[in-house]
Structures are given as C-alpha cells and as structure tokens.
User: Which sequence fits this backbone?
C-alpha cells in the first residue's frame, strides 16, 4: 500500500491494519504448530494407553474364563458365581481405565483421578437414577435371591423360564415362546413365585358328583384312580376330600404332586382329568350339569295340546 502524504492518519490506520492481520495469522499458525507438536509428543502416551486398555481387556477375559473354571467345582449358587466374576471384571476395568488416564495425562495422580471419578459418579448417578437402580437390584438378585438360570418364575402375570440374569436386566422366556426383557428393579420390588424352587409341585382340581350318588364311594374311587396315574410323584400323598355342597353337585378337592415345570403340571392335570372322568363313567357315577329349579308364586296353567288337535 502506497503512503498518502496528504492524509497521515489514513497511512497510520492502514499500517495498523496490516500489523494486526499479520499478528493474528502468526498467532494462529504458531498455535496450530504447537498443537501438532503436542499431539506428536503425546502419541507414545496414547499408544501406551491403548496397550493398557488391550491388556485390561485380555486380563478381564482371562480372569473370567479361569474364574469360571475354578468356581465350577464350587458347590454354591450359580448366580453367586456369576456375581463374583462380574464384579471382578468391573474392578479390573476400573483399574485399567484409571491407569490409562494417568498414562495419557502424566500430571494426573491417582488421588485426583479418584476425586474426579467421584464427582462424575455423582453427576451420572443423578442423571441415570433408573439405570443404577436396576444395576444394584441385579446385584442383589444375583447375591441373595433363590433365582437361578433355568428356573420357571411368575411375577405380575409374567410366567416363563429365566434364560439370563444380567446386572441391569433379566431375560425371561414365556411358556408361549415370547422373550420378555424385564428390568431387575421390577423383579426386586414385586413378589416373585419361583415355580421350580422344588422339583415337585402340588396340584389341585375340583370334581363334582350328583347329590344322589354315594359320596364316600366316589371319594375312594377317585383316590384309587389318581394313585394309578403315571405322572404323579409316587412318594407324595394323594389327597381327596369332600369339600363343598355346590349348586348342583357335591364337590371333592383332589390333590396330588407332580413335576414342577409348567408343562409337567399341564400334562399331569390332563391325565388325571381323563382318568377320573373315565373311572366315574365306568362306575355309573354321574358328574352333573348345573341344575336349576324354578319356583313360581302362582300355579302355571297347563294345556293338553294333543286333545286340541
């Protein structure tokens, strides 16, 4: 830019603009070079951190595999073994992440890292309260609940087989085939029926016979019939009690024991119902339909239809 002798102030402003643009460009260039140099200088630290993470993953996998084999002969609950392995894996990963952070940032000390981790944990815990609720519920389920993989459970209308208990959620395969993913807090807060906690279950049905039948004979016949069925547990009692005076029948409560799985219960109930029905029919004992007796305040007028034709 050529100087203007007629206006010295304009010349000074132009020179100031040139100097300002030059300073900004020099600053940007030097800052970029410094960032590139710092990145190049930190490449070894980044590679070291990646190596630490890889070793952490390998260690966690090895500990999980070897721990599973070592705990395989430990005659305790399977869920407790899984909890021990998972907590061990989590501790290894926390240590590995902390070590990799210290490697990447050499000025970071374990005390500062743990302090920062504590603040981050509080913030994350407030933001993801439901997730942490399910996490701790999963730990308590694995630790204290008599709930194992393969058990059939019933909870709030959900009936199915437990396929997997993760730390945050559980997989339940319903008897109809659908897979239900249930938050662990749902299982922890609601009553859970563990249908296969024992190997056998007691099943009860009601059988009715007509009022004109001999009830004692019917009870003996039903008891003998149930005891002869193959699906019942032979070393458990079969109980038949006269239970109630129904609207059209005398009701008997029939109770027996069978396998605990839902399919075992359905199969056994079907066998008992068929056998009892067949035995009562052969003995000529009536299983009545509902009877209704109608009473009128005034006698009804009757007509002889045949005589009117």
Assistant:
């Amino acid at each position: 830019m050529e100087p203007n002798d007629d206006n010295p102030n304009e010349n000074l402003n132009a020179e100031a603009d040139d100097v300002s643009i030059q300073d900004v460009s020099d600053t940007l260039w030097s800052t970029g070079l410094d960032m590139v140099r710092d990145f190049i200088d930190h490449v070894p630290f980044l590679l070291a951190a990646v190596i630490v993470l890889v070793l952490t993953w390998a260690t966690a996998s090895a500990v999980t595999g070897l721990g599973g084999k070592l705990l395989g002969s430990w005659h305790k609950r399977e869920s407790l073994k899984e909890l021990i392995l998972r907590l061990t894996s989590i501790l290894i990963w926390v240590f590995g992440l902390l070590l990799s952070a210290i490697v990447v940032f050499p000025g970071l000390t374990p005390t500062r890292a743990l302090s920062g981790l504590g603040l981050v944990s509080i913030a994350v815990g407030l933001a993801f309260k439901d997730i942490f609720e399910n996490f701790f519920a999963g730990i308590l389920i694995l630790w204290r609940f008599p709930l194992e993989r393969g058990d059939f459970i019933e909870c709030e209308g959900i009936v199915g087989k437990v396929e997997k208990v993760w730390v945050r959620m559980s997989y339940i395969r319903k008897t109809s085939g659908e897979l239900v993913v249930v938050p662990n807090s749902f299982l922890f807060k609601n009553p859970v029926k563990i249908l296969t906690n024992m190997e056998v279950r007691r099943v009860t049905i009601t059988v009715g016979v007509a009022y004109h039948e001999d009830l004692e004979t019917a009870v003996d016949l039903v008891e003998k019939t149930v005891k002869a069925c193959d699906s019942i547990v032979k070393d458990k009692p079969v109980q038949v009690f006269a239970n109630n005076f129904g609207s059209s029948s005398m009701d008997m409560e029939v109770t027996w024991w069978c396998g605990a799985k839902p399919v075992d219960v359905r199969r056994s109930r079907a066998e008992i119902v068929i056998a009892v029905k067949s035995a009562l029919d052969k003995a000529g004992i009536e299983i009545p339909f509902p009877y209704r007796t109608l009473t009128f305040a005034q006698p009804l007028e009757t007509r002889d239809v045949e005589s009117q034709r």
Summary: The beta strands are 152-155, 158-165, 169-174, 179-183, 193-194, 200-209, 239-245, 250-259. Residues 138 and 167 are 5 Å apart (CA to CA).
